Design the sequence.
């Protein structure tokens, strides 16, 4: 019978294997994107749905205002975002994802979730219950940190 440390190590290996499999299969969707890393980061920074000033986008991404403006402009050219002036202060410019971009982000996020859901559906009820118990326990530990 394995000791506690061996059990923890085996769980860690299994966790890595599951996420490696998910990422490998989801990678096909990601590789199909024709976006630079800067564009992809800006896309996900704006994925909350609320308009963001270009300055706030720069802060989230940790880049200067000109670079943030360039990132926003590149998404606008790709029809993934729209820019518009603040009606109360024309010096401020907002950027917001288009519905098409929001759908793209959701597709990328849901691809993995759907895959994982399908794998869970293949588990026996007792395995599913044991997994739920274990994940709830680790979620509680994570919430404390």
Sequence:
């Amino acid at each position: 019978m394995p000791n506690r440390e061996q059990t923890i190590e085996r769980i860690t290996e299994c966790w890595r294997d599951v996420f490696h499999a998910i990422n490998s299969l989801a990678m096909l969707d990601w590789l199909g994107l024709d976006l630079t890393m800067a564009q992809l980061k800006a896309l996900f920074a704006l994925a909350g749905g609320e308009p963001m000033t270009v300055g706030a986008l720069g802060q989230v991404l940790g880049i200067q205002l000109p670079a943030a403006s360039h990132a926003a402009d590149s998404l606008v050219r790709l029809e993934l975002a729209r820019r518009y002036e603040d009606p109360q202060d024309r010096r401020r410019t907002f950027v917001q994802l288009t519905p098409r971009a929001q759908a793209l982000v959701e597709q990328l996020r849901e691809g993995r979730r759907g895959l994982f859901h399908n794998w869970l559906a293949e588990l026996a009820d007792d395995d599913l219950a044991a997994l739920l118990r274990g994940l709830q326990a680790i979620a509680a530990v994570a919430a404390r940190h």
User: Anything to note?
Assistant: Strands lie at 52-53, 81-85, 93-97.
